[in-house]
Write a structure and sequence with these properties.
Layout: H1 13-24, H2 34-39, H3 45-50, H4 56-62, H5 68-81, H6 89-92, H7 95-109, H8 112-122
Length: 125
């Protein structure tokens, strides 16, 4: 199943799929060492490989996309159509880490915002 649902009008569909996934990954993780990414919980090989790419220029070079207008067109397509929800699957498996951090902060500092967030998320209140 494709990562991005609408590849109509795209000639290099596999490259476009990779680009859509790359664009959906957090920009601040791009170019980080593999050890840092793995420590943060990123362990899927495709994500690790894509996060090695720091910029659109690097993406174009790695995927042999010679015309810079191609990425411009893809950006417009992604913006117009929007990324499908599955693009953020990388983050969903990190939710337990976020809940743990929320718990630590709420129990140590006891600030109202953290306690309220915990009660909403965990207790459904």
């Amino acid at each position: 199943m494709p990562i991005y649902a609408n590849t109509q009008g795209v000639r290099k569909t596999q490259e476009f799929e990779a680009y859509a996934m790359w664009k959906a990954l957090p920009a601040f993780l791009r170019g980080q060492p593999r050890q840092v990414l793995e420590k943060l919980g990123v362990d899927e090989e495709i994500a690790l490989s894509l996060l090695e790419i720091r910029s659109q220029a690097e993406f174009a070079k790695r995927y042999d996309i010679k015309d810079p207008a191609t990425l411009t067109d893809w950006n417009k397509k992604l913006e117009k159509d929007g990324l499908i929800p599955q693009m953020h699957a990388w983050a969903r498996k990190l939710t337990p880490n976020v809940i743990w951090a929320l718990y630590r902060t709420a129990t140590k500092q006891g600030k109202a915002a953290e306690v309220n967030a915990w009660m909403e998320i965990v207790e459904g209140m």
